[in-house]
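pasting input
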Amino acid sequence: MTDTLKPENADQLFDALQWAAAEGQSFDVRGHGSKLDFGRPMQAALGLDLSGLNAITAYEPSELYMTALAATPIADIKAALRQNNQQMAFEPPDMGMLYGGEQGGGSIGGAIACNLAGPRRVQVGAARDHFLGFHAVSGRGEVFKSGGTVVKNVTGFDLSKLLAGSFGTLAVMSHVTFKVMPAAEKTRTVLVPGLSDDQAMNAMAAAMGSSNDVSGAAHLPASAAARSGVSYVSGAGVAVTALRVEGPGPSVEHRCRALTALLNEFGEIEELHSKNSADLWQEIGDAGVFMEGDAAAGDSGTDQIWRLSVPPMDGAGVVERILGETGAETGGRVFYDWGGGLVWLGLKASPDASHEVVRGAVKPTGGLATLIRADAGVRRRVPVFEPQPGALGDLAKRVKGGFDPNGVLNPGRMVEGV
Amino acid sequence: MTKIKRINDDLIGALRGLLGDRVSASEAVREQHGHDESYHEGHAPDLVVFPETAEEVSEVVKLCAARDVPVIPFGTGTALEGGVAALHGGVCIDLMRMNEIVRVNTEDMDVTVQPGVTRKQLNQHLRDTGLFFPIDPGADASLGGMTATRASGTNAVRYGTMRENVLSLSVVLADGRIIRTSRRARKSAAGYDLTRLFVGSEGTLGVITEITLRLQGIPEAVTTAVCTFEGVEPAIDTVIATIQSGIPVARVEFLDAVQMQALADYSDLDYPIGPTLIFEFHGTENGIAEQVEMVKAIAGDFGAPEFHWVDKPEERSHLWQARHDSYYACLALRPGAKGQATDVCVPISRLAECIQETRKDIDESGILAPIVGHVGDGNFHVVLLIDMDDKDEIARCKAFNERLVMRALAMEGTCTGEHGVGYGKIDFLTAEHGEAVSVMRALKMALDPKNIMNPGKIIRV
Ligand SMILES: Cc1cc2nc3c(=O)[nH]c(=O)nc-3n(C[C@H](O)[C@H](O)[C@H](O)COP(=O)(O)OP(=O)(O)OC[C@H]3O[C@@H](n4cnc5c(N)ncnc54)[C@H](O)[C@@H]3O)c2cc1C
C-alpha cells in the first residue's frame, strides 16, 4: 500500500503538486478510484486522493452550466440537476459493475478525465464536447485555468479538449465547468426484434440518417438481449435493435411513428416508454450487465473486455473476424452502441488478451481498440490504448512534456514509460 | 519588429528547386499575403510559396526549419485578427492550390478534403449526396483556415463549430514530419486529443494539409422566419428563453436597426428596419411545426411581433447571403472606413445585459457601429467603422473595445467567440486566462522549439 495524500481544497492540492514537482515525487491520481483499473497499472510513488474536493460551487439552472470540484460524485450532480429538470446530456456511464466496484460511484472529474460518454454520444458528442473549462495544477506545479462558461471560445490552444481523455497524466483538475441541458420531457425507444448484426447496422444507419433526431442506436444480439433487466428486451428471445427518440411529447410520438414506418421492412416494431427506456439506455451505457457472466449458470464471466471504435458499418464484420480467429471457446459476448461504431466485446481471459487478433481485425477499418478490463499483469504487457507509432507517439510525448516534464502525474497510465 | 534575415539565395534556390516557379518574391504577391480583411496592419512575408502536396509542404518546412526561418500558412486571408501577418518575415505557404476533395463517405457521413477547399466549394460538391457541411463563416473561407481558427457561423447552435466537426487531420509539424492525428473511426480514445489541439492553433503548431470533416444530412424540412421587435431587449429575451427551454433551433441571428438598414442598402433586403431576429428550424415537417409554435409562444410573451415566413428557397438564400455579407454592408455604410469586428461571447443568461450596456456605450462613444450576432451562442459582433486617419477616433474605438472585452470577462464570458487571437488579441488572452498562457507557451515550446511556426500569434514566446 503506497502512502496517499488527501488535499481538502484547491490550495492544498496546489501545495501537494508543488512539493511533488520540487521533490521529484510522483502520484497516482484518483477521484473515487472507480476507474483505477482503466488504463495501465501505474508506477507512482504516492497516491493523491481527491475525494476531499467535493462540492458543487456554481449552479444556476438558467445559466445552463455547472461548476463543481473535481471529485464531486456524479450521483450528487445528477440529483441536483434532476430537481431542476436538467441533465448532463453526455450521460457519463457508471463503470461500477465493470470494475467490480459499487454502482453509483464515480466523480465528475474522473468522467471527464477519461472522456466517457454514453449512448447519446451519437447525437450530442463526447464528454469533452460538454466540458467548458477548468482550474487545474499541471505536473510542473503551476495553477492555471482555461475555457470558461461559454459554449464557444477561440482563445488559443484548446486545453479543455486536451485534458478530457488525458487520464490525469497532464494536470490535476480542481474545478470543472460543464454544460447542463434541459432534460427531455418524454423518451421512447423503438425496438426492432430479430435482426442479424448486419441487418441491424443497416437499420441503425437508416434511422440515424433520417430527420428523426435519434439520440441512441444500439444492437443487442440475442445472447446480450437475454441479459437485460428490461423484460420486453430479455423476453424477446431474439436480438433486439433499439433506437431512442427524446423531446416534447407530440414530437416524440410522431417521430416514433416515422421511424416505425421507416423500419417496418426490417420486422415487427415495438415501443418502450419512459421508465423502461431509461433503464435500457442506462444498461447500454454502463455495459456491465451485458458483459458479466451468469453465476447461476456456473459461468464465471468474461475476464477481458475490449471496447472497439470502428466506422459504424464495419462493426459486425470486425466481430465476426475476431471470433472466427480466436475460436468459439473464447465465449465472445458482444453488443453494439453508437449505431454500430462502438463495439463491446468480452473474451475469456488469455495471457495476451488476444490483442494481436483484435487489433489486427480493427486496423484495416481505420478503427482502434481499447482494453477496458484485464488483470494488472496483462495490462502491463499489452497496450491498453491503441499504440501510436512514430511521429504521432513522439508528439504525444511532447504534449506530456509540455505539462508534466518530470512525470509527476500518473506515470505509465496511458503509455509505458510516459 | 525584428526581421529574421536568413532568407538568402541558398534558401530561394532550394525552394525553386523544389517548386519551380511556384515561389514568388514579387512585391504585389507578398503584400497581398501579408494581411487579412481586418484593420490590423499587414506585414509582408519575404517569399510566398504555392505547394500542391503535403510532401511539398513538408519539404518547405524542413528547408525553413534548417535555417530558423518563420513559416506562415495562408488560406483565403479572410481572418480578422492579423493571423497571416508575417511579423518576423519568413515564408508564407499559400495552401489554395491544395484544393481537392479527396473522399466523400456518404454512409459514414464524413468527407476528407485538402486545406484549400472552401466551404462553398465543398457544399457545391456535396449537392447530390443529400449531405451538407454546416459551418458557415460569412466569408467563403478555406477549410484549412477555418480549422486553424476554429471558425463557426450561423449554424453553430445546432451543429457546433469546427471544434465539434473536425474528425481528423494531417499536419506538417515544425520539424517537417507529417502526422495523421487519428484514424477514420470517429470515436477515438488512443491518447490525447491531438486533433483538437490543432483546431484553433492558428498555424502556430503546424500546417494542416488534410482535414476529415463530419457531414450532416440535409434536413427533410427547413423553415426560416424574420421577426422584427420593438426593442433590443425583447428580441434578446426571446433568444434566451428559447435556448433555455432547449428548443433545437438551427440558427438564430440578431441584427440591430443600424445593421438592418445597412443590409437594406447593400443587399436590397426588404424587411422592416428594427431590432431583428432571423430564426431557422431544421427537421421533419411536424417537428418544425412544433418548434415554431413554441418559439412563437415565447416571442408572444415578449411583445408578440409578426413572423415573416421565408418559404421560397431563392428568398432564403438571398436572406442568408445578405447576412453573410453583413460585414461588407457595414463597410459600405461609411466608404473609406476600416472595420473592426469585435467578438465577445457571454453566457446566454447575461446576453441581454451585455448587449444593452454595449449599445449604450456605442451611443456615448459617438461611433458608427452596427451590432450583429450569433446570439444563440451568446456571441455578437460590434462592427466599429473607423476612419484610420482620425487618431482620436482610433483611440475612442480602442477604448470602447477594451471596455467591451472587460464587460464580457466580468460576465464570465470571453474576448473571442470565433475570430481567434492572431496578434490583435494577445493581450486580452492574458487578461482572460492568466497562467494558462504560460501553459500554452510550454506546449508551444514543446511542439515548436525554434518558434518558426507563425511566430508572434496567440502567445509571445
Ligand atoms: C465577411 C466576413 C465574415 C466572417 N464571418 C465569420 C463568422 O461568422 N465566423 C467565424 O468564425 N469567422 C468569420 N470570419 C473570419 C474568417 O472568415 C475566419 O476566421 C476563417 O476561418 C478564416 O479562414 P481563411 O482561410 O481566410 O484563413 P486565413 O485568414 O488565410 O488564415 C487564418 C489563420 O489560420 C492560419 N492558417 C490558414 N490556413 C492554415 C492551414 N492550412 N494550416 C495551418 N494554419 C492555417 C493562418 O496562418 C492564420 O493564422 C469572417 C470574415 C469576414 C471577412
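fyi The mean pLDDT of chain B is 94.
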